Amino acid sequence: MIYFDNAATTYPKPECVYKALDKANKEMAFNAGRGSYRKAKEVSIKIDETRQLIADIIKADKNNVIFKTSATSALNSIILGLNWDKGDNIYVSPFEHNSVMRPLEYIKQKFNVNIIVLPFDNRSWNISDDAWDMFTLKKPKCIICSSKSNVTGYKLPISKIFKEGKKYNSINLLDASQSFGIDTDITKENTDFIVFAGHKSLYASFGIAGFIKLNNIDLETIEFGGTGSDSLNLNMPEESPNKYESGSKNTVAIMGLNESLKWLQNTNVEEREKKLTEYLYDKLKNIQKVIIYVPTDEKKCIGIVSINIEGYSADEVGSILDEEFDIAVRTGYHCAPFIHDFIDSLRFNGTVRISLNYFNSKEDIDKLIEALETL
Questions:
Q1: 218-231: pLDDT as tens digits
Q2: Which of 182-186, 221-225, 366-370 is least confident?
Q3: 287 & 223 share domain
Q4: Domain that holds residue 176
Q5: d(Cα 183, Cα 168) in Å, to the nearest integer?
Q6: N or C terminus: fewer CB in 10 A for the chain?
Q7: Same domain membership, residue 245 and residue 166
Q8: 106-153 residue pLDDT tens
């Protein structure tokens, strides 16, 4: 199989990650913080080391690295944990995922807040200057943006958006599920929370993700249970990370993440993805019936390319690639409710998404191009 669904989950993982997962299952699958025996202590030390590796990426405090089971869980913890009042204005981009939009819809119905989509030009994909006028008229309580679109690979102008929002003391939440650990542009400047997903850009397994709390914004706890500490107290601990981490941690997945983070320190994933994306664009442009969803400056998109083929629905193309050529792509709407109207792909029932990773090759792309040329 030629695999081009890396925006959903990177595959394959580095060999060192597979070895770490196997070893962890056999030798480290114990509850951290809940045993006085040697192995439990070893697991606790390894988890603490992994927190530090995450924190080091943006020079944060390791105690503010919160582990969750998925980026969706992390986003829910933040969005449902913030204090909302009637009439609050929450700004999002047209590129957001339903892991952002569905909890926001719940907040909207419960607290009667306003969800406002930031205006982007649908040719250049640049954010409109009208956005700053909107901030003046309707001051942002919170801004939530992806670092990179899971549909098109577009890198949003996060620094500009968050800097403008901070003029109004906005709470800025960055969903970095698609790029944390490989995108050198991600910083903590003007950012209050960063969400990461282990099984995507961090090249780890399912079951480990989380968020980094960068400022002194307190979150209400939305999940309660054992933490392995202060067990006679019926209230959750007040200190981070224990306040936000209840239940047994996925120690096996954390061991895999530990190894993938070390691998990423010595691997330039971003540069390889850039080169492969450029190569893919050049090849796709030579196929007459292909529609490529890209801004005027295509270099703003990295690692993910959405296309359609005239005369076919997105799902039809995906089925042909799978059944006749053993090529895996993602088709449909990709859990992104606004972007398909923005890029005009509704008539194809979404897009054919080709998402690359470090382990793809030009030969993989050539085989994809050969398959598309038969349509």
A1: 899 878 777 766 66
A2: 221-225
A3: no
A4: 15-265
A5: 27
A6: N
A7: yes
A8: 999 999 999 999 999 999 999 998 999 999 999 999 999 999 999 999
Decide which of 265, 286, 301 is a domain's last residue. Answer: 265
Between β-strands 304-309 and 2-3, what pairing exists: parallel, antiparallel or unpaired? Answer: unpaired
Give the residue from 235, 265, 295 where a domain finishes: 265
Q: Identify whether residues 215 and 355 lie together within a single domain.
A: no
Across the range 52-76, mean pLDDT stands at 97
For the stretch 288-333, pLDDT in tens is 999 999 999 999 999 999 999 999 999 999 999 999 999 999 999 9
Cα radius of gyration (the chain) = 21
CB 321 within 8 A of CB 327: yes
Give the ranges where the chain is alpha helix by DSSP (H).
Answer: 15-27, 38-58, 71-79, 98-111, 130-137, 158-166, 251-265, 269-284, 314-325, 339-343, 362-372
157: left (phi > 0), else alpha (psi -120 to 50), else beta? beta
- Domain total for the chain? 2
Residue (of 96, 152, 69, 184) closest to 345 by Cα position: 152
Note whether 240 and 314 are same-domain residues: no
The CATH number of whichever domain residue 280 belongs to comes to: 3.90.1150.10
Residue 97 is classified by DSSP as -
Cis bond before residue 12 (omega within 30° of 0): yes
